[in-house]
Amino acid sequence: MGSRKRHGGHFPITIQALLPLPELMMDAEWVLATLSDAMEALESAVAELESDPESLDERLPELLPAIYAKLNYAWNSRELGPAALEQIDHDRLVAFPRDLPF
């Protein structure tokens, strides 16, 4: 049978099928650019709130989701880089990552 073996008598499994799939490499230039964009949004939000602390209750719920979306976008597009725009649905790109360990 070579590299195949019976699994519970149901079907043959190749050794390759048991190995993890190779992971894509992160696009460092893309990740740094998208993280810089998130950092700029955070810095802008902090500056706005520092200049008008009384607006915190109103503005923070408006500003924070955009910052999280940019961070999520950086993570969710890290391997595909700019191609992620064409290959992944926008809602999924900005959604909280499914593959983070927390």
| Annotation field: number of helices | 5
General shape: elongated
- Tell me, rounded to a whole number, the average pLDDT: 85
| Main sheet strand line-up | 1-2
Low-confidence runs of at least 5 consecutive residues: 1-7
Question: What series of H and E elements makes up the topology?
Answer: EEHHHHH
Terminal CA distance reads: 42 Å
Q: Give the total of beta strands.
A: 2
Round the Cα radius of gyration to an integer and report it. 21 Å
Q: Helicity range of the residues?
A: 55-70%
Instruction: Please outline the major beta sheet.
Output: 2 strands, antiparallel
| Relative strand content | 5-15%
Specify the structural class: mainly alpha
Q: What does this entry look like structurally?
A:
With 102 residues, the protein is mainly α. It has a domain at 24-94. The chain contains five helices and two strands, in the order ββααααα. Strands 1-2 form a two-stranded antiparallel sheet. The chain is elongated and about 45 Å long. It starts with a strand and ends in an 8-residue tail after the last helix. Residues 1-7 have low confidence and may be disordered.
Q: Brief description of this entry?
A:
This protein has helices spanning 15-18, 28-51, 56-76, 84-87, 90-94; strands at 4-7, 11-14. A two-stranded antiparallel sheet has the order 1-2. With 102 residues, the chain is mainly alpha-helical.
Features:
single chain; 102 residues
